[in-house]
Amino acid sequence: MSSLGRIAEAILEFDEEKLLKEVKEALDSGLDPVKVLEEGVAAGLRKVGELFEKGELFLMHVVVAAEAAKKAIEELIEPKIMEKGEKRKGLGKVVIGTVAGDIHDIGKNIVAAMLTAAGFEVYDLGKDVPVEKFIEKAREVQADIIAASALLSTSMPVQREIVKALEEASLKGRIKVMVGGAPVTEEWAREIGADGYGADAVEAVEVAKKLVGVEC
Ligand code: B12
What we know:
alpha/beta, Methyltransferase, Methionine Synthase (B12-binding Domains), Chain A, domain 1, Rossmann fold, 2 domains, five-stranded parallel beta sheet, globular, binds cobalamin
């Protein structure tokens, strides 16, 4: 089995110790930290999600797997992403958060780290963030982009509310909205009038650069 396969397997076995060891080894061997994240850790987590949906795992399993994944990401993967960052600064300001009613923040944290590494100034509002808070912070720091993450079909409509609130504040167009999260699609982004959509953290950076007019 490949080292990325072993990382996903460690998550499915809820074996934090093995996960940290495998991730460390993969990074030490020179594997791209983004690949380790997407094809190892995130792949394992998505599989856990599938098994949970099928009723083969309990929520407690998802909690344990998520905690182990978070630890591996925060302690090992994010520092590597930052190290490899472009050291370019001042691409623009991004206010990011997971929308109200939603506490999934692993993907959002990765997007925030990647944007920071790419040279954006990132203001992370955390999770379960009300619409007004996104708007208030974006106004305060004169943000270029609001990046809103949603992992639940029930929290996705909050992304539409953010676009609406910007329209009502006559800020639509001046502050761009970028949306993402597992159930979010390009079509959804278009339907709600968002300016950009990214399927993963790499795309998030590409889209953000496009939105501020920087060539990729
Ligand atoms: C881990 C997890 C949890 C953890 C979260 C821990 C944490 N701190 O985040 C816990 C256990 C708390 C949890 C709780 C719940 N969960 Co949950 N969870 C997951 C799981 C297994 C993995 C999510 C994850 O971290 N993925 C890894 C990251 C790296 O991927 P990602 O989040 O998709 O992010 C990437 C991209 O989407 C993108 N991206 C993300 N955000 C953004 C933002 C922008 C702007 C851009 C451009 C891109 C972008 O880039 C990221 C990096 O590549 C998913 C399964 C799945 N398929 O997603 C279910 C899942 C999302 N959960 C689900 C459910 C139902 C719940 C609960 C309601 C369960 C319950 N009965 O209580 C609660 C919700 C609580 C709440 N109010 O939010 C369902 C949602 C179904 C739906 N469509 O609505 C899923 C799909 C599982 C399933 N198949 O049933 N969950």
